[in-house]
Specification:
It contains nine helices and nine strands. By secondary structure, the chain is an alpha/beta fold. The strands form two sheets. A six-stranded mixed β-sheet has the order 5-6-7-3-8-9, with helices on both faces. Strands 2-1-4 form a three-stranded antiparallel β-sheet, with helices on one face. Helix 4 crosses helix 5 and helix 5 packs across helix 6.
């Protein structure tokens, strides 16, 4: 098992835990909360903590491709959000070395009323490019996304698949050193998915560090050097993708034959 070690690691998590508090109040109860503030505050203090990650330690080497698998609620997306600096850990230390390009949530960082072009430039700048560099990359981004004339239309007119096209095109054309992908490719059509996977393979050859969260176990076996299985916020096992996938399937389908998918 890999442990946090040296400067050759692009990502190091040491004893990382993340706590959320389960919301017991609904948005429609805001008026009641204002009218009965003391009661509301007392109820809020009684919220139950939920540990999405529990004392998790993991290191990922520069140029390594790692798949993160596990059931819903295992902590996979929380792990990526912490690596992307979108959420701070409650406990533990996180070290990330390199430019991070996250593709985590469909439409995250995009503004519906703004054109695809302006959104792409803005997001490229937020990912570390200068405005000039972002504008220079636009022909590649537009070509890869295949949005054509839609690039100059407001994104409120886009389908979910068009969001994915633009989001992925931006994420991979800002010259990332670390690429984080969380399931969003499942939204696109099969042809564009294959195009994305071909580009991921190209980035692997260029030694970009890739962390892929997905339920597509075949993609993990195909594209990843290592797989990490999470359950209830903790690492169950990690190692060769086939072995990790087999362990996952054995836990989900205990009566199935090891190594075969239902």
């Amino acid at each position: 098992m890999k442990t946090p070690s040296n400067d050759e690691d692009a990502i190091v998590l040491q004893g990382v835990s993340k706590r959320y508090f389960l919301q017991s109040q609904r948005a429609g109860e805001i008026k009641t909360a204002l009218l009965h503030l003391l009661t509301f505050l007392r109820a809020s203090r009684g919220k139950q903590p939920f540990w999405a990650l529990k004392d998790l330690s993991l290191s990922i080497s520069r140029g390594e491709s790692v798949g993160v698998i596990g059931p819903n609620g295992a902590g996979k997306s929380t792990l990526l959000r912490i690596v992307a600096r979108l959420a701070p850990p409650t406990k533990g230390k996180v070290t990330v070395r390199g430019r991070v390009s996250p593709l985590l949530e469909l439409g995250a960082g995009f503004h519906d009323q703004v054109t695809g072009r302006d959104n792409a430039i803005l997001n490229a700048v937020l990912l570390g490019l200068s405005r000039r560099e972002a504008q220079e990359r636009m022909p590649e981004i537009i070509d890869f996304s295949e949005l054509g004339e839609f690039i100059d239309q407001p994104m409120r007119t886009y389908s979910s698949g068009m969001y994915v096209r633009l989001g992925f095109a931006v994420a991979v054309h800002v010259k990332p050193e670390i690429l984080l992908i969380d399931e969003v490719l499942a939204v696109g059509d099969a042809e564009f998915q294959q195009k994305c996977f071909d580009h991921i393979e190209k980035l692997r050859q260029e030694r970009v560090t890739i962390v892929l969260v997905t339920h597509d176990l075949e993609s993990v076996k195909r594209f990843c050097d290592r797989a990490v299985l999470l359950e209830h916020g903790s690492i169950v096992t990690q190692g060769a993708p086939q072995a990790a996938v087999d362990e996952y399937l054995a836990r989900v389908f205990p009566h199935a034959t090891a190594g075969s998918e239902p």
